Amino acid sequence: MVARPPVAVAIERMTVDDLDAVHAIEREAFSTPWPSQAYRQELEGNRMAHYIVARWGDEIVGFAGMWLLVDEAHVTTFATRRTWRRQGIGERLLLALLDLARVRGAREATLEVRPSNTAARRLYEKYGFRNAGVRPRYYSDNHEDALIMTTEPLDSREMRVRLITLREKLARRPEMEVGPDGRPIGLSQGPDGSSREGPGAGGAASTAATSIPDPGDPSIIRPSGVTRKTL
Length: 231
Hints:
By secondary structure, the chain is α+β, with helices and mostly antiparallel strands.
């Protein structure tokens, strides 16, 4: 058996036909997953909500979402399949969200993240997010605080240059090759065959084979307070 030929990962709008796959990733990634009807309600009844998926062929390997609140884009959820982490999926999703936010007139983007989610925080810093505050005891599973991270103005010269540079680097990244087991070739696995994960509870960011977290692909951002209170 040989590896499948390299295939591009496409970022597309989430549809109701994607929800079974999205729910499967949600249950895998989060200790407190959203109820099964939550994403359908978001897609069909929330004009502020925008959700996207990362698709490899017919398979959904990640998803992300945000709310556009006047001139602020608030990232609400973010996850990749465990077997596809550290492959740049999260970075592609984050860039797509920031592009969509700019097109829709958002002045800045914001999100919450666990302080222990080191790999995710490094990625967000890479894309221009900076610490802006703390929500004490925000996460219900372990009462960990949440860091509030916000970008510089999305139309500022600094952010535009940053996103252009990062987009060019992503474009030069080779497409993924997938082995006969359906896993990306080169994925670091634990002794039980599972993907290695980083610190934190309920789906913390994945790490590279070394002890240094890979900033290229976080596994999650837990949904924000504004979204969680509504759903």
